[in-house]
Design brief:
Strand order of the largest sheet: 1-2-3
Structural class: alpha+beta
Number of strands: 3
Distance between the termini: 42 Å
Number of helices: 4
Helix content: 25-40%
Strand content: 15-25%
């Protein structure tokens, strides 16, 4: 286990302490069953007890009628979280994204605002 995993700032260590109510918890991570997947899209659903996250790929649908572009969302993975774990995930993602934007600049979610204009001196010009 690396020193980083034992540091008090580590979200996994903090989560383990919160879940157990203890001040000090040794966290061991078993990655022997881990697999890695890429997702460029997600969808959420919720019940009274859980949040369901579906991850997958947005792909152009080749079976779409001519002249009607269509995106196919191919779901590859589903993660079900209780609300406590979902809140911890949301807080951790917020921190990670904030650090990234502090270092590299704000992430623009609107694709139209990210496109290059092609005119010299215009925003977005490389």
């Amino acid at each position: 286990m690396s020193a980083k995993e034992n540091s008090p700032e580590n979200p996994l260590d903090q989560q383990a302490r919160q879940q157990t109510g203890q001040q000090s918890v040794q966290l061991r991570i078993d990655e022997t069953q881990m697999s890695t997947r890429y997702a460029n899209a997600f969808r959420t659903n919720a019940t009274a007890e859980e949040i369901i996250l579906d991850f997958g790929l947005n792909l152009p649908n080749p079976a779409a009628p001519p002249g009607q572009p269509e995106i196919l969302f191919r779901v590859t993975d589903r993660v079900v979280l209780n609300y406590y774990s979902a809140k911890r995930l949301a807080l951790t993602l917020t921190q990670v994204i904030r650090r990234y934007e502090d270092q590299f600049g704000e992430l623009e979610l609107n694709v139209a605002n990210r496109q290059r204009s092609g005119k010299p001196g215009q925003p977005g010009q490389a």
